Amino acid sequence: MFVQPIEMTEVETPAVEGQVPIPRTFRWQGRDFTVAAVLKRWQDQPLRARGALRPREVRFGTPARAGEGRTYFRVRTQDGAVFDLAFDPHVAHWALLRKLAPGAS
Fold this sequence. Notes:
Structural class: mainly beta
Radius of gyration: 13 Å
Number of helices: 0
């Protein structure tokens, strides 16, 4: 897995304050990608002991809250590419974690 900062050029602003924005278009390696579908969404959730983080899947329809840790999105772009993206609400920073094989879900 590699982590590269990306420029998020368009997000869907949540209707309720404090929720995580949904990625719509981003720029990576000089190319623009339009998100056709969000396939999966999950978050880091702080563990009570030692301040560690553990992943927690966020079911569709359940709002991801910006204060709970990083939120991850598996997205399919209009050209069929699949990416894992991450949003860190503490610094309002987006990153590309990996590009998956086409058809991954």
